[in-house]
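If your schedule permits, I should be very grateful for your opinion on a structural question. I have a record of one protein: its chain in single-letter code and its fold written as C-alpha cells. Kindly check, if you would, that the fold set down in the C-alpha cells agrees with what the sequence suggests. I remain grateful for any guidance, and I place the record below:

***
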Amino acid sequence: MPPKIVEVIENGVCAACGACEATCPLNAVHVDLEAERRDPNNLTYYVHGAACEVCEDCLTCSRVCPVVDGFPTDEFDNVRSFRGGKSELEGQDGAVVSAILKSLFEQGEIDCAVGIKRDEDWKIEPFILTKASDVDLSKGTKYTSAPVLSQLKEAMAKYEKIAVVGVPCQAHAAALMRENMTDRIALVIGILCMESFTEEALCENIIPKIMGLDITKVVKMDFGGGKFWAYTKNGDNGEEPEAHSVAIKEVAPLARNPCHHCLDYTAYYADISVGSVGAPDGWNSVIVRTEIGEKYLNKVKGIEYMDDPKPGMFLIKKLADQKHKNNAPKEGGAH
C-alpha cells in the first residue's frame, strides 16, 4: 500500500513544502522545485527510487503532509491577538519577520532558521540561517515557492532551537513535524498568502511578457488593491522605485496548481502570522495564534506596535473568504 502522499502527488495538489523529504527515515523522497513536474514513478525525483518501492509503511510522510491533514474550518478561531507592527529594518513593509529573527538570534533564543534567499534574477534557493546577519539575505517576499522544509533534515541534525518561516502550507507542515516527531522546532512564523508561482511562471512569463519588465531591474513585488505590483529601479541616486501593475485576474490563473486548492490564507497553524494586508502602508499585520508565539514575540526587541490597525482584520477576513470561495471543491468533487 503506497503512502498517502503518493495520492497527493498524483492528483497534482502537492504543495512542495519539503516536509516529507526532511522526515523520511529512508531518504526516499526528494522534492523538486515544481510540484506539477513530479511523478512518484520517476526515479529523477527520488533518492533511492520511487517512494512506493522502498516505503516501509512508517507513515511519517503522511503525518507531516499539510494536504493529507486538511484545512481549518475557521481560520480565525485561534487568534490570541492582532496588532500592527513595524521595525526600522529594511525589508517588505514593516520588516517584522526580519526583526523577530534578528532579535531572537541576538538573544540566543534560536540557533538557526530556515528560509529562502534570491539573486538579482529572482531565482530562489532555500537555505539555513545561523546568525543575525543572515536575515538580510532572506528579507522581502519572493512570490515563488521552494521546498523550504527540506532544509530541516540538516537543521535538525545540527541545531536545538529552530525557527521556520513559510507560507501557510509550509507553516502547517512545520507544526505537524513539531507535533509528531521533533521538539527542535521552536517557532513557526507564517506568511499570509493567496497564491505563489513557479520560478518559470513568474520570471519567464509574468514579469517579462505580461508586464514587459526586465526581471533584473525589479526590486520588489507585492499584491494590493486588486493588482499585482512590481517595482523597478529608477536611477542610481536613491530615487523611489517605479511602480508597475497588472490586474490580479491576469496572473492568478498562472499560480501553482496546489495553490488553487488551498483553503488557508492566514497560516492558521503558525505560532505567529505576518502580512501586509490589514495594516497601513509601511506596517505589517501581526497575528499571534499560540502561547508559543506570544512567548517569543514578548522577547523580541525593536518592533513598534499599533493597536487596532486599519483597514484591520475586516480586510484579512474578506480575502480569506475570497480564497475559500475560489478554491473550495466543487459540488460532487473531491478536495
